[in-house]
Amino acid sequence: MAAGFTYQEIADILDGYFFNELEQSSPIIDFEFDPAQLQKGVSGNCFISISRERWNQFHKKELPWIDGNVRILEYYKNCDLIITEEPIKELAPFVAQIIVKNSIKSMQILAKQARNKMKNPVIGITGSVGKSSTRLILEHLLKEISNVVATRGNHNTQTGVPLYGAKLCRNPDMGIVEISLNALNNRGNQALTIRPDVCMVTSIGEAHLSTLHSTMNVATFKARIFDGLTTGGLAIINKDIGKEEFRILYEQAKKRTNRIKTYSLIDKSADLFLKKRIYEKYKTTVIFQYKKTAYTFDMIMPSDGIMMNTLGALLCLAELGYDIDSMARKVYDFKSLDRVMELKRLNSKDQRRIDIIDDSHNAAIPSMINAIKTFKEKQFFYKGKKILVLGQVADLGDQSEYLHDKLVPYILQSDADYVFGHGKYMRDVIKKLPANMVGGWFNNALELSTRIPYYCSDDSFILLKGSVSGSDFRKTSHYLPAQIKRSTKEIKDITPQPQVLVDHIQPMWGIVGYDLKENKEIFHKGYLQTKSIEGIGPIILLLLLFQMGIQDQKVSRLNRWPTNEGVSINQKPFHFGQTFTHRELAEEVMLTQHPSAVFELAHLYFSNRNKAMKEITKLVEMLDITPSAALNLTGRYRVKEQQSFQLSDLIKVGKALKQYQSELPIIMNCNGMNMRGIAFGTLRSHCILFIEDVLYCGSGMTSVEDLKRNLTFSMELTRMKS
Could you tell me which residue ranges the Mur ligase C-terminal domain spans (predicted)? Predict the structure, then answer.
């Protein structure tokens, strides 16, 4: 059977018809449904046009898909044939078109027919993690000796797998197709479409637990890849997969073949297994055994995950008859995807040498653990600070908290000097670590990246690991190197006392005056971008209470709060059972932000502190305030939940508070005018103040007196200029 398709073959296979018949100069040997991927200057390209309606119908939801008939207008010169449901009349003179009923089904039909033209091995790869790395390693090892068709990017789904199945029509020396769980689910088993000669399962982990609920269910679905295995084909399974999950995979493979091979980092009964690894600073030597013979390779990327995937790829090629020794020698030059164990060697502006292993391409719990283990092994070669920067793992469903807790013992044993966390589920992990180990928890990638360089000494080592979805952690990969390069100082004595930190993070104060009637800034003084390390939780709570209506004269007895100490502005002791009116508690928050007053009001009006924080978070989002501006109720600095706000945030809060300014206390008198508002802060002094329609916001002063002095001076200077 000839490689590629004629136009007529395609029309017959798809039960389609020609909109226009143009002469065919060469067989169709490649297919794309993204016209931007059509190769320029190459003949034999076919574009499969998928309409927005068809794409959304197939995926059963509205997606931002651009109609293929529209997109191809920019790229039509790069293709010889278009398969489409609706004719593209303006292209009739230029490109042959075959009209079909359903373009997505047509792609699946073409993939099945193309497989009949493929006479060389097809490798299908699935697994919770490791699919892409294994595919890329195989491509790297074969690139100089074989013509390979392999999955590109994330085309491992119900639409991507048939696309790459169709590409097999050219009969390359090897086909390597990733098959995700999406392509093995109940909507259709695409392993039956591409019929692999080799089926590989790289891992079974906690990915997809939000829908499948257990790793046994994940294994059951992943095992469906073996349904498509050609009779007597080769099954390759990672033997380090959990015992029960491995059994599910093995039994399913056994139904199709007796050729089942395994590989392992720890199990010496596997067909190919690790014997020894030797770490150096920028290289790892791996010694493994296959058929009673030891082989060696060097690798730049040090993780157990990459090591495991390399062993799987070498086993696959060895079983297909390739010389394993020559293949192993090529491993050293392998480079994976960006941000997969990517080494970034950086220098700060003051010439501190800082290495980052950026493994932020994606994450699962097993790969997080592997990365932390690698971090521990590699830190021996660094004299400076060793820093873990960990984002949360996405798509774990209702087991997210439980599974993230699994990381805690590995972190505690990692010998990290500092650990930084990012994302909702990493917050509880950070809370479980000793304070002297914590660099901080953040929910903003830029804030996180700005803070880390202060903790880096010369010859420091950083591991960056987390999921790309569910937060903005992925941006850390770009922000952190940039922040390191411009960093000019290390804080050499970072202690649990935050005063050392605030002197570096907020060394300059800033004041801004804002005309609320004209909605414009009327003056600013100092540093407009000054940034705090405290929060505005109490101020947002007050705003909520004003909106709800404070029951001024109602009396309540103080609950037993851990912060019950000292006396109120009215000289009442903060003791359990002490009576306060709600107005007294509110004034305490306005003037001192005493945490017991904050907690009591949160309890009285929201029933508990957690519910109050949820409402605060909602209002922060509604006002478009920096999310990290209010991470706790009291606003106090906490190393395990790093807060930050800017003057722009205070202006937004001030606008919302304007209608309640008559209820705010007089903070100071300036040139005979009373200024009402709130002065707050412990490490630095900040304010939101009003004189009628003018709002004054300040941040970063070393004391309330300093704040009042600078504010008075700024207002007087502005008055003189006007």
Answer: 345-467
DSSP per-residue string spanning 227-276: GGPPTT-EEEEETTS-HHHHHHHHHHHHTT-SEEEEEESS-TTSSEEEEE
Residue 716 pLDDT: 67
On the CB side of 250, how many CA atoms lie within 13 Å of its CA? Answer: 13
For the record, the structure tokens of 589 come out as 């928050």
Phi, psi of 222 (to 5 degrees): -65, -35
Q: What is the DSSP letter of 531?
A: B
pLDDT at 619: 97
Whether 441 and 641 have beta carbons less than 8 Å apart is answered as yes
Cα-based distances in Å from 39 to 31, 84, 142, 221, 397: 10, 19, 22, 35, 40
Q: Scanning the structure block, which residue is given the tokens 């407009």?
A: 528
- Global pTM reads 0.80
Give the residue ranges of the chain where pLDDT is below 70: 1, 207-212, 494-497, 714-722
Q: What distance in Å separates the CA atoms of residue 82 and residue 84, rounded to the nearest whole number?
A: 6
How many other C-beta atoms are found inside a 10 Å radius of the C-beta of residue 605?
A: 18
Burial class of residue 60 in the structure, from the number of CB atoms within 10 Å of its CB (0-12 exposed, 13-18 middle, 19+ buried): exposed
Per the CB < 8 A criterion, the answer to whether 388 and 416 are in contact is yes
> Rounded to the nearest 10 degrees, how much is the dihedral formed by the CA atoms of 87, 92, 96, 99?
10
Beta-carbon count within 10 A of 139 CB: 18
